[in-house]
Amino acid sequence: MQSSMVINRSVEEVFSYIENGHNTSNYISKEFQIKPVLSVGSQDANYRMGSQVVGQGAFAGMAVNIQYQVAVFQPNRHIRLKSVGGLYESEVNWQLESQGDNRTSLLLEVKVKPKFSLGVMGSMFDKVVGPLIKQILTQSLSKLKYIMERQPVAVAA
Question: Going by CATH, does the domain composed of 2-37+45-150 fall within 3.30.930.10?
Fold first, then answer.
């Protein structure tokens, strides 16, 4: 499930905001939070290759707790969180592309797949959960766009 949007800010500004794990709770659904796990000696909450992240909250009436690791970190281009252990295989992707003139195309994608067979329930899972995730992604990007476009434009030094 994915959603995309163009944000009227440079790719550097959008990426800088996204890579700070504390900002995620400003635009992702209040029911499900993705937060960095600060390691000993860490000075910030920025995502980095290999850093640990926890996703927790409620989704479709069920408690969810997923441990993630940053699997891809390409500055100003791509961040991918991949689940580690647990009952579900899950990925969260942010893909950015400069559109020129301080415009950034941002794709937010979530993949969730149970590690066990759901049989007939599997198709029901996709039919019920898919639209809910799509709605959350679209709302999240709209909120991120609103936040980013209300900030003062960064001035190059």
Answer: no
